[in-house]
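Subject: Sanity check before I submit

Could someone independently write out the structure tokens for this chain? I want to compare against mine line by line before I put it in a report. The sequence has 472 residues.
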Amino acid sequence: MATNAQIQTSQGDPALTATTGSPITGTQSAVDAGSNLLASATRLWAIRARRGVRLELPAYLSIQGTWFIAFGLQMVLFPYLITNKLGLDGTELGIANFALAGPSVIFLLIGGVIAERAPSKPLLFILHLCAAIPALGLAYILATGQLTYAHLLIYGVALGTVGAFMMPARDAVLNEVVDRRSRVGSKLTLQQGIAFATITQFGGQIIGLTLAGYADKLTRMPTWLGGFGIGPIDSWQLMSLQGLIVGAGAIAALFLAMGRRVKTGRVGFSGAFGDIAEGFKVVTSDARLWSMTLLMFGVGVFVIGAFLVVLPIVNRNIYGLAGDGIRDMFVTFWMGAFVSSVTLSVLKSIQRPGRLLLSAQLIGSLGILPMLNLIPHWGFLMILFGWGLSAGVSIAMSRVIVQDVAPKNQLARVLSIYQLGFMAGAPLGAAIMGPLVDSLGPHWIALVPATGMTVLIAIVAICSPIWTLKNN
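---
Independent answer below. Compare away.
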């Protein structure tokens, strides 16, 4: 047994103390090591989370880009197949566009409810895959030489149905992406996020429109570009490309977060109608929201109806052009929209978004009046470029106003109702413009959208707070 002197000597020896240590010191070291490990893991997790959040915006823009490249291809190929491939007129083109846009009227509101209830990542993944099926199916029909008008109507209904669920799901996600980026220190504003999405939309459409213009025809570049020829590319190959590109958007969707899910206390299909009714109550109780919805309905009737039906007939009957002419006029229009969207993207906040919106729409509506006279093709394209400049401002500002005003827990439903105004107006406008352009001719028809939009803009400016709306 050790004596007291021996014990005291052992306790006082620094070398011996350093070698053996004490239970208290060892426990503290373990606690410190554990704390350091936890802090390191927390930092690594935070870095990983920030990296994931920063990847979301490029992923979202990729989703936007793949959809609208495919949409640009469709904008040329669909009317080209009807007017040039099958040789049909404005009435048949109007009915076909009604089939393409009509499902949105039926399914868009349900799409808004599903966008709130379902996680955004798997929803967008599935929708992009579903959008590829009609395009690939039509490509097979074209490749085998069996195309009929009925096939195009079936294609239109199928793709229009997928689009009805896609629009509110995709548009509502942007608000979440911007919000999550702001939490990790990003200075990106909602207006800039919408501007980037709009730039991607227009840029994607321009790419798709350009590619589709080579359908079944050789296009020769101007001499200052070398004078080389591109095409012809078979229309079935371009339709296959459309399906593959929109399907690729499913891969980009995998890089999104699962997203917010709204719980309203209602479940099942019957509960969806209660959610829709609640969304309508929100829109009708806010003058800013219902006036924007009304304005978009007018755009659908007067602008999109003319855009989808009148312009392809002008392209064929006045200028004697085919798919390349449809490409040129649509590319010119969306190039104008692209330019104005890029300009808006450098501005963090516009103080009077409503005033800018209404002014742009009025300028665009009155700017098409020179089409009442027979003008050279370059003059026609200049009108379309100016129309596109106005459209870019109009689309971006309307999205900013609605996404900023709408309650965040009802955003998808409000967006679906807002888009319903646009989508319900588009097939109605297409159905009206088809017979009108056949009876009045492609010149006088310009009076219809110009007059209709001017009257509607005046009503919204006088009877709603949009003109005086001011950002904080």
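---
OP: Matches mine. For the report I'm noting this point. The radius of gyration is 29 Å.
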